[in-house]
Amino acid sequence: MISRRLLYLDTQRLSAYLWQQGKLQPEGVFEMRPDDHQRFADYLRAHPKSHFQILANVAEEGHELETIPFLQGADRKALISRKLGQHFLGSPLATAISLGYEKNKRKNEKLLLTALTNPAHFEPWIKALQDADAALAGIYTVAQLGGTLLRKLGESGQRALLLTYQDHSIRESYLFDGQPLFSRMVPLFDSSIAGIASRLAAESLKLHQYLASQRLIRRSEPIPVYMLAHPQAVATVRQACVDAGSLQYQILDSHQAAKKLGLKTLPGDSSSELIFLHLLAAAPPRQQFAAEAYRHDYRISQMRYGLIGLAVVALLGGFLFGAKQLYDNYSLRQEAAAFTASEADLSWRYREISATFPQLGIDNDTLRRVTDRQQELLRQQRVPNDAFILVSHALNEVPNVHLESLEWKLGDNASAPSTSARNTIGEILKSNNETVILRGTIRLGPTSTPRQTLATFEHFVDLLRVDRDSEVSVLQQPFEIESGRALRGGDVDSDDTQARQFAVQIARKLAP
Length: 512
What we know:
Among the domains are: 3-60 and 118-290, ATPase, nucleotide binding domain (Nucleotidyltransferase, domain 5), CATH 3.30.420.40; 385-484 and 493-509, Alpha-Beta Plaits. The relative contact order is 0.08. The chain is an alpha+beta fold. The chain contains 14 helices and 17 strands.
């Protein structure tokens, strides 16, 4: 598991702390001498699974305001690097903070360039971190955390002065929208409560005069001055710092501030380094001063633990998937067992009920084949609906035609009864032809002529031929007409009053 360790570097020494759930536990103090540098390296090797953050409180800190054209990507990075090199002589401990864009057509970007201008002070400690392959997450300053402190304590304002005491010195910062535009460290020779109070009052006036002379603030502009003090020193500091002119003092109780921030290790005096260390661990700023070359081991550690996290997630996902499969398998087994029990119960009930059925004398397989054959015959059954409808329509149109008999036959050889008799029932039912033989008479009355009778008969036959699926053939004409003999109107039989018989055959091809 990754542990968080904080390194507090001042002008004389480096102090190491373990931060865990709001508690700060001191683990060592290392002086600025070679022996302690080696002892610090041994300390780093003893904690290979830790991420380290350095909080610096040194005098060599620079801040510059700069405006650059609107750029993006590599061009912006190159221009910022050039600006940092121009202002801070190529210090590797430098960063740029964007303050937004100007509201005009050019949309220039405002930058706060800040750097630690004495990298030699950090070099032995950074070298020890690199030699020990320790993961350096970043280098930060106390001035950077001033805006975070006021925001966490609910003190809002665009401009503010923040004065804090630590390392026998006073850190003075001018904050604009939470960003330090100016910061300096003033040594303190009297560390008593009265000495700290008087020094805070004097330095706040000097800082205000300096900022006004640099045109960073207006002399008549009211500006709040925030000071951190131990509860026992709050009254003394309040008595020494009386509102004067545009300065409005706000004394912050360090114990109340620590509790509000979630720090469980309360400061023992007016020193505020524990509060800033806790802020660094809980809410580190986005920008830091260490170059990427110094953070190589930190990036490797991030990738390592990222891969471990992905592996854990994959393992957990596989475990959950396996558990789901086991549960589904168990559910399917339970369901199969329930179906098996239900099938056994239904089979027993069927056997119990079937025992009461009358015995047919045949086995179940034979009975099943017979019923299947019956269903097949029912599906193949044919009825002469279409043929009878055709005949009925023709009879309605010609009422003088009287039907005496109608014979319907099914099969390809319907006209040959002896042949069709030899066909099996299945072969006949599979036939696609049906034949209808109509026998009847034509009765037109005593005054009718043979031509009228033949015309009526031909009209009846034409009506039967309307259906394209039917083939109509005349088996018997109403009159016997010999070839080469003309039929005259006066040609009549001796018994004209008798009805003339005819026979017509309709052959239809059935749809499958």
